[in-house]
Amino acid sequence: MNPFSKFLIYFLAVARQQSIRKAAEELRIAGSAINRHILLGEQQIQTPLFERLPSGMRLTAAGELLYACARRWMKDFDDLSRQIDDLKGIRRGQVNLLAPEALARAFLPQLVARMKEHHPGVVLNVSIQDNRRIYERLLAGEGDLALVLDPEDMRDVVVARRISFPLGFVCLPGHPLTQHASVRLAQCVDYPMIIPEQPLALSSVFAKLVTAGRATPVVAARANNVQMIRSLVAEGIGICFLSYLDVMSEVTKGELAFVPLSGSAMPHLTLALVYDRTRQLSRTTHQVGRIVESIMSEGRELAAPPVGEGKGDLSVQ
């Protein structure tokens, strides 16, 4: 049940999208209906909520105030619904999880499968987001939990658990590099290599490593997409520099091999489970959190030594 008026729902969509057309696509209704309700709302409160610009819709000062209040109302109602569900002791519910695209191939399918096995009545709504915007979406009330890569310290966000994935070289099984438990960059530069390019975060990391090591890789190809890089390695074009998280699925299946890069200053990729400190988590959300933590604990055994626990607590007393 959505207790909010059509006007408020339409208003929030237009404010998010900064466009009536895009809001109509999001809500799957006619743009004329959205525009009509927005105009009626502005007439009712006797002030414009949007500036109509050639580039789209921009909130006025009054619109900004209403937008902040509306998001708070929806967030509070969400929390109320969860508390009522907990009082009922229901075994059904929905949990909204925000996550980066890097988890879409291995981690998230495993999570959904376990949820269906252990809590078949719970619907897990997974929203793939740009990793840089996940905190913003979480604090806007669009997610109950979030998985974020290389988390930043934020006052209103609690890190419940984190896991560190090593960086290293990916190659075909049987490649000479697989004879080593770990390798240094100097051992790899003579092999044909697929170089990560921007906007991949690993591009700048790899460039710094090459500069620091005064190395000159043998370039077989360049790519700015992890899937493309994996495919090129699978075709035998060369080796590549990625994180274990990027190839966990292929390594588990024996399709590719991963050899971590050694060195005391070697960076790692960190994955964290986080939630908004100001929200009361429902029992259903705790169930999801425990399964996420279980998968992360298993991944830790395969990936890298722990980097420390957060101060959050997802346990249900």
From TrEMBL:
Residues that span the membrane, as ranges: none
Keywords: DNA-binding, Transcription, Transcription regulation
Domain annotation HTH lysR-type: ranges: 8-60
Keyword Phosphoprotein included in the entry's annotation: no
InterPro entries: HTH-type_LysR_regulators (IPR050950), LysR_HTH_N (IPR000847), LysR_subst-bd (IPR005119), WH-like_DNA-bd_sf (IPR036388), WH_DNA-bd_sf (IPR036390)
Pfam name, any one: HTH_1
Family the entry assigns: Belongs to the LysR transcriptional regulatory family.
Protein name: LysR family transcriptional regulator
